[in-house]
Specification:
With about 180 residues, the chain is mainly α. Helices cover about 75% and strands about 0% of the residues. It has one domain. The protein has seven helices and two strands. Strands 1-2 form a two-stranded antiparallel ribbon.
């Protein structure tokens, strides 16, 4: 009999004994502590840590958009003509990114996570998922972005910058 056939025969016999006499086979194994609860606890800790990391990442994305919008508004307040218009368009885009908790590529990732069942806070009015910017704040920011793109005097631009900071301070306040 070849070595392969001997190995297969021995394996079949071992499986048969294990299936026919499970208590005998199990009694020869060393008793081990059930670690399912411990493993599940470690998984829960990791999931919670990942969610906190995601919260921090999204907050950072929003803060970056806010900072970019504020810088563009400051630039627009001291510029004129085409330079002012370009700065105001940049500010409006960044305010929109803050309202949406990220630009289009970030939104695509969030949509993928949502489709996989990964959700955060559900807005009572819109049933949309969000981390920091709820539907009321989103509406305020999108309205501000629309208005910003149409501004043309320094005083109104500075007022818009103050409004942006007020909305963002409220939105990013820990719950």
């Amino acid at each position: 009999m070849s070595n392969t056939k001997k190995l297969i025969t021995a394996l079949c016999i071992t499986i048969a004994i294990t299936l026919l006499f499970p208590s005998t086979a199990n009694s020869q194994l060393p008793k081990s502590k059930d670690t399912s609860a411990e493993t599940y606890e470690q998984l829960a800790t990791a999931i919670i840590a990942i969610r906190k990391t995601e919260d921090g990442l999204v907050k950072g994305i929003i803060l970056h958009a806010q900072g970019s919008a504020a810088a563009a508004l400051a630039s627009a307040a001291s510029a004129t003509g085409a330079a002012q218009k370009q700065a105001l368009e940049t500010a409006a885009t960044e305010i929109t990114n803050a309202a949406n908790e990220g630009d289009k590529p970030v939104q695509a990732v969030r949509q993928r996570l949502s489709k996989a069942g990964h959700t955060h806070h559900t807005d009572a009015e819109t049933k949309e998922d969000y981390l920091w910017i709820d539907s009321k704040e989103k509406k305020q920011l999108l309205d501000l972005a629309r208005r910003v793109s149409q501004l043309n005097d320094a005083a109104a631009i500075r007022k818009a910058a103050d409004e942006l900071n007020t909305i963002m301070d409220k939105a990013l306040r820990p719950e």
